[in-house]
Design a protein that fits this description.
Shape: elongated
Number of domains: 3
CATH superfamily of the largest domain: Periplasmic binding protein-like II
Radius of gyration: 30 Å
Strand content: 15-25%
Distance between the termini: 63 Å
Number of strands: 11
Largest sheet: 7 strands, mixed
Order of helices and strands: HHHEEHEHEHEEHEEHEHEEH
Structural class: alpha/beta
Number of helices: 10
Length: 298
């Protein structure tokens, strides 16, 4: 059984932080006699002198300094616990499970989560970064509460957020850039294509593969982008991920006869609209707004 209470430690801390009993009484709205009694009782219960008064000011003893430092950690934890409880009492979810396809702009994702964390610091986020069918599988399997992807899974209703455009690119010195005429399918098939692997397990897709002689499959768009920037192949990559490289000349669009650009819609889907709490809905709104802001600027 604990000898001391958190309230006693809170009063002692107020005395030290504010320079005395009278000053502490004004700050924490307790009478000076109440604080005095609580601190003296704390010393008696612990059997340790915590304070010594010099003049009109109270100072911690060496033992008091050590114990109050430990107690301050407990006070911070207790305050954090109360904040979490307050959030839960207002209907805020303790955790949100989010799946985001890599077609969604990375800058939009980090900005949305950064803003969300400032307003809901006690809500945990489990983020799953997916490709093609991976996010849909997690939503249909009950593994996530919210999905942002290039399509809405069967049996769900999703909200359209916007478009993401893909462009065929390679290194400026890649052999395809030196043919000197618009490229056709036969030209592409003779060179290595970098394909991003579907993160789904059940019905994997080979979206965009042209049956090139050499196919390298990677797990992330960033890996594909870095390989292509080294002249290791070609691929269709989202403009949202390669804007800087195109502007700097590290990547160059391929001059195709047709199909050099593709676009896909981006959709936001809730696992259960009726059961989604206010925090999940707020995160959904921010993800949508960030993409709209991105499109407006770009």
């Amino acid at each position: 059984m604990a000898k001391a209470t958190l309230e006693q430690w809170r009063m002692l801390k107020a005395v030290i932080d504010n320079g005395g009993f009278a000053q502490a009484a004004k700050v924490i709205f307790k009478s000076q006699s109440t604080i005095n009694h609580a601190v003296h009782k704390l010393q008696q219960q612990l059997g340790v002198q915590l304070l010594e008064v010099r003049g009109r000011k109270a100072y911690l003893t060496e033992e008091g300094t050590l114990l109050l430092r430990r107690a301050s950690q407990l006070l911070e934890q207790a305050t954090a616990l109360e904040e979490v409880a307050d959030s839960l009492s207002q209907g805020e979810e303790a955790e949100i499970r989010l799946a985001v396809d890599e077609v969604y702009p990375y800058r939009c994702l980090t900005q949305a989560l950064d803003d969300f964390s400032r307003d809901y610091p006690n809500t945990r986020i489990q983020l799953h970064e997916t490709v093609l069918s991976g996010g849909a599988e997690k939503l249909m399997g009950g593994e996530v509460d919210l999905l942002v992807a290039g399509s809405t899974p069967p049996g769900f209703l999703g909200d359209y957020l916007g478009q993401v455009e893909f462009v065929a690119v390679s290194h400026p010195d890649h052999p395809l850039q030196k043919i000197g005429r618009p490229l056709n399918l036969r030209d592409l098939a003779a060179h290595r294509q970098i394909v991003v692997r579907d993160s789904g397990l059940l019905q994997r897709q080979d979206s965009g593969w042209l049956e090139a002689e050499q196919r390298w499959t990677v797990s992330h768009i960033q890996t594909s982008r870095d390989m292509i920037a080294r002249g290791m192949g070609f691929a269709w990559l989202p403009l949202t991920r390669i804007g800087d490289e195109l502007r700097s000349g590290a990547l160059k669009p391929l001059p195709l006869e047709q199909g050099s650009r593709r676009s896909t819609g981006v959709y936001l889907t809730l696992a259960d609209l009726d059961k989604s709490g206010p925090t999940t809905r707020q995160l959904a709104r921010r993800l949508g707004q960030e993409l709209r802001n991105f499109e407006a600027v770009n």
